[in-house]
Amino acid sequence: MSVVCQNERGWVLNACSLIDLGHSRCIQWREAKKSHFKCCFKRQCFQLLKSHFSVNASAADDGHTTALPKSDLLCKLSKKRKRKHSDFNQGEIDSRAYHEKIRPVILEGTKSLLDAVRSLAYLTGVTDAVEEPLPTQECNLAALCEMAKELPLVDEADQEAHVQSLGAEGGRASHLDLFCRITENSADSGMLVTLMGDEYVIPPRTAFLLSDFTRIQPLVHCGRRFELIVMDPPWENKSLKRSRRYSSLPSSQLKRLPIPSLASPGCLVVTWVTNRPSHLRFVRDELYPHWGVEVLAEWFWVKVTTSGQFVFPLDSQHKKPYEVMVLGRYRSPMCENSSSGTSETPVEDQRVIVSVPSALHSHKPSLAEVLKPYVRAEAKCLELFARSLQPGWTSWGNEVLKFQHVSYFTVTPTNDPTDIPEGETAGSCTDKPTDTPVSRNPSSPSHSPPTVD
């Protein structure tokens, strides 16, 4: 059950179930023999049991309390010395003003959704805790993309050459060109395949291109147009520079993304934005107008623990327990002269999405389920700057396979691909792993508690 609850305020998502969607039936070919598996994303990645209301976090707070009442399991913070208004720079002043503007939306929307979902016995703090270390697979995909820049690109006039298939038997994976061609699994089952010496779980009806910003041409030249585009750009910020987890991209470079060449008329465009008002203004006032995208709404992803607490103090001057998405529609010149043939569902403003966040850095929840009503059935969907794959979607990024590595999944052999326990659907994976799951993680990571970005 991926969408646990929905009301006029928004949605409560089970993000782990969203990942499992489409991975419950997987096959692997070895020496012409076919094996069946069920793959579930490791549950310990979503076992965030406690809020980050540490002494240090409290000391950084500006004197407000986390406003949901105690009955809603939100911690009350002790009052600390306030900074004088003159101590803030312009960016901090803008951030405070924006926060005060959207604070009631976050607070009231989250409370409404938590009240509704607790009647379903969800986010009550009762979990099947998994005492296992978090996966810590080292990802070298970005470095490989950098090296692959020396490879020749396919002739842009040959659209068919830009797409390669894994094939009915997993393809000749060792011969696939992952960096210059779109790789596609057109089967209705997921696949366990070996790529570049590592095993990855590829969902059904999925396509991906592994490349950096300078090698996105195959995605443009393959001739596909999309009705939904979601992107999570690597925004520049000081924390990212210090951590060196991945390279960032200057805001001005985002204008070079070929959205007009990828979007169908009326395409819904969704962009994840950091909590810096300068980035939000850039998307609304520069980036979307540059592409011909009309701004429609701002939505908020609210991160909570398994008990329904905000993961960070709501009024903290530093990390907030929410992130922002800007939604808009692509209005191409042809939209004015011709109809796309479908009526557009209005997009409501200031909706809230509540979920337990992943403990893995920059691992956003899938928006596929909540965005379905706003695009036509069978819409072609694209994710840019992706770090994982989604069933039925095309994905692009220089770490597009990162969270598809088999070390992030519990892999359980099954005898029959249609053998799903009663009460489950083909897109769910709610059963507990067997005592002897197939382990394909060669490393032995040390245990570390979940953290939230």
UniProtKB/TrEMBL annotation:
One of its GO terms (cellular component) is cytosol. It comes from the Eukaryota. Pfam families: MT-A70 (PF05063). GO terms for molecular function: RNA methyltransferase activity; site-specific DNA-methyltransferase (adenine-specific) activity. InterPro entries: MT-A70-like (IPR007757). Residues 437-453 have a biased composition (Low complexity). Residues 414-453 are annotated as: Disordered. Belongs to the MT-A70-like family. This is Methyltransferase 4, N6-adenosine.
